[in-house]
Specification:
Elements lengths: L5 E3 L25 E6 H11 L14 H17 L3 E5 L7 H5 L17 H12 L2 E4 L5 H14 L3 E5 L13 E8 L3 E5 L1 H8 L6 H8 E2 L4 E2 L6 H11 L2 H6 L6 H9 L1 H11 L21 H11 L3 H5 L10 H17 E2 L3 H9 L6 E10 L2 E10 L4 E5 L5 H12 L5 E3 L2 H10 L7 E4 H8 L8 H9 L3 H11 L6 H29 L3 H21 L1 E3 L1 H24 L11 H11 L7 E2 L2 E2 L3 H11 L2 H24 L6 E2 L2 E3 L9 E3 L11 H6 L3 E2 L6 E7 L2 H10 L2 H9 L3 H9 L9 H15 L4 H8 L3 H14 L1 H17 L1 E3 L5 E3 L8 H37 L5 E6 L2 E6 L4 H13 L10 E6 L8
Parallel strand pairs: 2-3, 2-5, 3-4, 5-6, 10-13, 11-14, 14-15
Antiparallel strand pairs: 1-4, 6-7, 8-9, 11-12, 12-13, 16-19, 16-22, 17-18, 20-21, 23-27, 23-28, 24-25, 26-27
Helix pairs in contact: 1-2, 2-4, 4-12, 7-8, 7-11, 12-19, 14-20, 15-16, 17-22, 18-21, 19-21, 20-21, 22-35, 23-26, 25-26, 28-29, 28-34, 28-35, 30-31, 31-32, 32-33, 33-34, 34-35, 35-36
EC number: 2.7.7.7
Protein name: DNA polymerase I
GO biological process, one term: DNA-templated DNA replication
């Protein structure tokens, strides 16, 4: 008898043991059952190799490509096949009874990729949230679980669909059992019914194990009869009726193949025992255990949040998977009906009354419109309170009504809430309407409470906090109300529904902010900053497209030159330097270089691997290849910038406040923070950014060594504090103590190594990472780090305490109390735990740096406005501000910025601000 079944219910609790013999077990009703069975491990591996691991992570170092691919496969197959019941079978570690039959079973397989580790458990979490049963049985394989359930269901008259890449599943195919065999990745499945099996293998499905026993199975390390392929095996089976007949007449089979068979009878018999599916495991027999439609939409959204999955896969989850929560659906439809009852489309007179009466105490806003490349419009606005929901077509307002709306929006005494205040303000500003009095930004509030979860849209927040599918419940309500309105009515209803959701979410997220102790961060920092950023985005920065075009032309010539140089070092025909397959052939076959990390498609040729190869070999082809990649990257950056220039000759990037978990701002559309500043080629791109007409110059101001100053402040290390207060070169000062030499005797190598250690510690770099960065041995890197700690013990003690405190509290904090939650600090998974420890080291430092530059931006903006200066802040690039100086204001603005940035926050060491000016961003560098 097998060990008890282990599995999971839809709420993640282990099943009780179900130990029924076939005789005692009730039969599974089959006439109305369409059972989908999935080989969990087989499909997880296919998903892993179908998607790049480096492109799918949860933000904490855990790869999630197999999880994403598997979830996508489940969604697709459920949607297309529409089963009534589903089960997923997994293998357990430690082997099975087959390993006792043959100790070389599955030997020789490649070691499981490091990035695959941990993903099976995450897949099982996804299945739990989907309400899909998953099963394991000790000493047996997933194949055996599938065989048992398939046989049982087919015998009861049900239909079975099996999703597996394992050819052993072919033996299960029958009139009511179909194999869905992956052809490409996990998205394209081939239907294998009895006719398809016979066409492909020339044997009936039930005889496929006989064929496999003769041919062998390389994936399982089961050697077949030498010289006997599928065609010969199929011919023998046809002639003798199966393997038993073949072995009974083995002496009659002539030729080398016949002799080879006789020499390997034992192998064939062993193979046949090995590939026979077990069909009588003790598995739960109650059909409700496998019934589809038990998924929890909110739980699934939470799991996807934790995995950092985007919105697309969420939208594609079919209702077929989800529980029909009648109460929840009724509540959603009831609320949708209430919205319809409260919804008004006010004329000018009614709008004026609303604004001065029901909406005088504030409202939730949802703005319909667009904003792109500095231009846009607001076509409609929905205003929601507990008593009324008004949808206003802005374009149809007369002058008096628009003036009334403008006054209401601009009144700072009227509190307003939106999902994204900056986006709403952009759309309204494009219409000539200014907004003041923002009291809540849902997107920012959610981020402050859950910084490591992927940002979600308004429907995602409604699903997470209201357990309500905003889109589907509205559609359902429309249908149930038998609405016969126009498309315009439906648009107004949807906009009003969204505004109502904003209103109901506000108190929930406000309570969340309080419970997470981050309410002041929203009210005093992030919300005011959103207004500053919105004005910066609306202004944009002037860009000379001609300069960018010239640079691109120069880079194109350079790209061709380095490509030709690269080809000269390898001989033969030119190759595609961007093709991993062609690079593998050149590097590892033609040039015989050391192998890099193995992947499914060969050996990796990513940038890190190529840099390591170049460090080892110094081969000129690699030098040219790396140069080609650099210039290609420059051309891609330039192309993106040119596409983003508005008709007015400006770039309007968008600063995101709810993406980087450390609190740093990020830039998109385009990303102006990824223009390389440490290379000459990158700096030349900045020459295209210039002061606008009517302005005198650009000014750049940045903090000097802010992370190290924060490290000194947080650690309280007297040596590090003295280094800053002395005014000496920090890294020379630190190096003199680490290497125990006089400051004047510190050579460039010493200074460089010490600088790498200082910043490495601030960014949670391990000794291994330090060794890679400096191209030294791990032993030397460890000694260097230990020497640093010996001289600066306060830093060592602070870093240790940071991790331990975070382990106890579950989070880290910045100087302003910004939290980052790190549940993986107590994880059993070593990789996730170590990643969390690195985050615990660097988040307080990087997050505090982000807090300080945000405080500085608020101070600088307020000072410019109070002084009625025309100069304006254009950009923020981490610890740097780019300011446009109006004629005659340079001296005043320089003084104002140095004071504002320098006094943004009082540390135990001074905040040093560097300033430069020039006509272009490049000229203003310092």
């Amino acid at each position: 008898m097998p060990e008890p079944v282990r599995g999971s219910s839809s709420v993640g609790c282990p099943w009780d043991t179900v130990a029924m013999t076939d005789a005692a077990a009730p039969s599974v009703p089959g006439q109305d059952m369409r059972l989908l069975l999935v080989d969990g491990h087989a499909m997880a591996f296919r998903a892993f190799f179908a998607l790049p691991a480096d492109s799918f992570t949860d933000g904490r170092g855990q790869s999630t490509n197999a999880v994403y691919g598997f979830a996508r496969m489940m969604i697709n197959v459920v949607q297309s096949e529409r089963p009534t019941h589903v089960a997923v079978a997994f293998d357990l570690p430690g082997g099975t009874f087959r390993d006792r039959i043959y100790d070389q079973y599955k030997a020789g397989r490649d070691e499981t990729p490091e990035q695959f580790h941990g993903q099976i458990a995450l897949i099982q979490q996804v299945l739990d949230a989907m309400g899909i049963t998953w099963l394991t049985v000790e000493d047996y394989e997933a194949d055996d679980i599938i065989a048992t359930l398939a046989t049982r269901t087919a015998a009861a008259g049900g239909e079975v669909l099996i999703v597996s890449s394992d050819r052993d599943a072919i033996q299960l195919v029958g009139e009511s059992v179909t194999l869905l065999q992956p052809v490409k990745g996990v998205t394209e499945l081939r239907r294998m019914d009895p006719a398809a099996v016979e066409e492909k293998y020339q044997v009936a499905p039930e005889l496929y194990p006989d064929l496999a026993a003769l041919v062998g199975e390389s994936a399982d390390n089961l050697p077949g009869v030498p010289g006997v392929g599928p065609k010969t095996a199929a011919k023998w089976i046809a002639a003798h009726g199966g393997l038993a007949g073949i072995l009974a007449h083995a002496d009659e089979i002539t030729g080398k193949a016949g002799q080879s068979l006789r020499d390997h009878v034992a192998d064939v018999e062993r193979n046949r025992r090995m590939n026979e599916a077990v069909r009588d495991l003790d598995l739960p027999t109650d059909p409700s255990r496998y019934a589809l439609g038990r998924g929890d939409r909110a739980a699934l959204a939470g799991v996807f949040d934790d995995l950092a999955f985007g919105p697309t896969i969420r939208r594609d989850v079919p209702d077929l998977l989800l529980a029909d929560d009648a109460a929840q659906q009724d509540a959603a439809e009831e609320r949708a009906a209430e919205v319809m009852a409260e919804l008004v489309r006010p004329d000018a007179e009614r709008l004026a009354t609303l604004l001065s009466d029901e909406l005088a105490a504030g409202a939730a806003l949802e703005v319909e419109g667009s904003w792109e490349l500095g231009e846009g419009d607001a076509s409609a606005i929905a205003l929601a309170t507990a008593d009324v929901i008004a949808v206003v077509d802005v374009a149809e307002l007369d002058d008096a009504a628009e003036r009334a709306l403008a006054a209401w929006l601009a009144d700072p005494a009227v509190p307003k809430t939106a999902y994204d205040t900056k986006a709403s303000a952009h759309r309204l500003r494009a219409r000539g309407l200014q907004v003041a009095g923002w009291a809540m930004d849902l997107a920012i509030a959610e981020f402050l409470c859950r910084p490591d979860q992927r940002p979600t849209d308004l429907p995602g927040l409604a699903l997470r906090h209201l357990q309500e599918d905003l889109a589907s419940s509205t559609a359902a309500a429309q249908q149930s109300l038998d609405l016969e309105g126009t498309q315009d009515d439906a648009r107004a209803e949807q906009l009003g529904r969204r505004a109502d959701a904003v209103r109901r979410l506000e108190p929930l997220l406000r309570a969340d902010l309080v419970s997470h102790a981050v309410e002041p961060l929203l009210d005093d920092l992030e919300l005011p900053l959103a207004d500053v950023l919105g004005r910066m985005e609306a202004v944009g920065v002037a860009v000379d497209d001609g300069v960018l075009a010239d640079l691109d032309e120069q880079h194109a010539r350079q790209q061709e030159a380095v490509a030709q140089s690269a080809f000269s070092h390898i001989g033969g025909d030119p190759i595609n330097l961007g093709s991993p397959k062609q690079l593998q052939e050149v590097l590892f076959e033609r040039l015989g270089m050391p192998k890099t990390r193995r992947t499914k498609t060969g050996y990796t040729t990513n940038a890190e691997a190529l840099e390591d190869l170049f460090a080892q070999t110094g081969h000129p082809f690699l030098a040219d290849l790396l140069a080609h990649r650099d210039v290609t990257k420059m051309r891609q950056i330039i192309e993106t910038l040119r596409r983003s220039i508005s008709p007015a000759g400006r770039i309007h990037t968008s600063f995101q406040q709810n993406v980087a978990a450390t609190g740093r701002l990020s830039s998109i559309g385009p990303n102006l923070q990824n223009i390389p500043a440490r290379t000459e080629e990158g700096r030349r791109i900045r020459s295209a950014f210039h002061a606008s007409a009517g302005f005198e110059t650009l000014l750049t101001a940045d903090y000097s060594q802010i992370e190290m100053r924060i490290m000194a402040h947080l650690s309280g290390d007297e040596g590090l504090i003295e280094a800053f207060r002395s005014g000496e070169d920090l890294h020379r000062y630190v190096a003199s103590r680490v290497f125990d030499v006089a400051p004047e005797d510190v050579d460039p190598a010493m200074r460089s190594k010490t600088k790498a250690v200082s910043y490495g510690l601030a960014y949670g770099l391990s000794a291994f990472g330090l060794a890679r960065q400096l191209h030294i041995s791990q032993k030397e890197a460890t000694a260097l780090r230990d020497g640093y700690f010996e001289r600066f013990g306060g830093v060592r003690d602070y870093l240790r305490a940071s991790v331990e405190t975070a382990r106890e509290t579950g989070y880290t904090e910045t100087i302003l109390g910004r939290r980052r939650y790190l549940p993986d600090l107590t994880s059993d998974n070593r990789q996730r735990r170590e990643n969390a420890e690195r985050v615990a080291l660097n988040s307080p430092i990087q997050g505090s740096a982000a807090d300080i530059i945000k405080l500085a931006m608020l101070r600088v903006d307020a000072a410019l406005r109070e002084a009625s200066l025309a100069s304006r802040v254009l950009l923020q690039v981490h610890d740097e501000l780019v300011v446009e100086i109006a004629p005659g204001e340079r001296e005043a603005v320089t003084s104002l910025i140095v004071e504002g940035m320098g006094s943004a926050y009082e540390l135990s060491v001074p905040l040093e601000v560097g300033v430069g000016t020039g006509r272009t961003w490049l000229d203003a560098a310092h």
